[in-house]
Amino acid sequence: MKMYVIIILQFMIWSGYTLIEWLSSRDQLVYKVLMFFVFFYLAFLLGRKLTESTAKAFFVTTLSLTMYTSFHFTMVYFTG
Is residue 80 part of a domain? Predict the structure, then answer.
């Protein structure tokens, strides 16, 4: 059950990243990559705090990012 809560909270972080990336559409790619790493680190810290394990936190963070990205691109493809 704890993993589901972590994934939902990390989805909120990824949604915030998507919103900020959309708002900064004219920024250079370097700044977008740096911003991605900041959000990834925040999601990882949240996962590590709640799981108390670095390996599990990295796995859950990568899993939530993969799920969010696949869902995001699926919705863009079918609605856009």
Answer: no
